[in-house]
Amino acid sequence: MNRNAFFAIYQKKPLWLIFLFIVVAVGLNGLFSTINAALNFPFFFDSIWTATIAALFGPVVGVATGILTNFFLEVLAGFTLIHYPFGLCNALTGLIVGLMARSGRFRAINHIVMASLAVTLGNSILGAVIATYLFGGATGIDIDYIMTGLMLAGHGKRI
Question: What is the total count of domains within the chain?
Fold first, then answer.
């Protein structure tokens, strides 16, 4: 893709509108993540709006939204340095969804299922690598307790 084609994508939409959507998406991702943490759900709701923004504006804006979301979550948490590394996972969500939407592979239900599977697989692998190498395998969130229980149930005394 040449440079002019890259910038032509963003010339169709005003820059202020893109920034407005990013700010709103980051705020909504933070809100959903905070509600999720308060209710102790073992899900990650901090990338729903990242995927939405990536589908609407493309992969670059999706990646920026993902990284800014995790920076915002880090600020909300008091700079515990747990959320920021996982910004790579959120950015990967924006990249995958944005590329699929840009290539026209986001128009049918089977494309959405493929995007969901690609995001899930990519984030599972990347999240596991981040959790293992930066945090020794445990980050202190509720999903760690579920994984520990599953490992203990499946592996007996080997742990």
Answer: 1
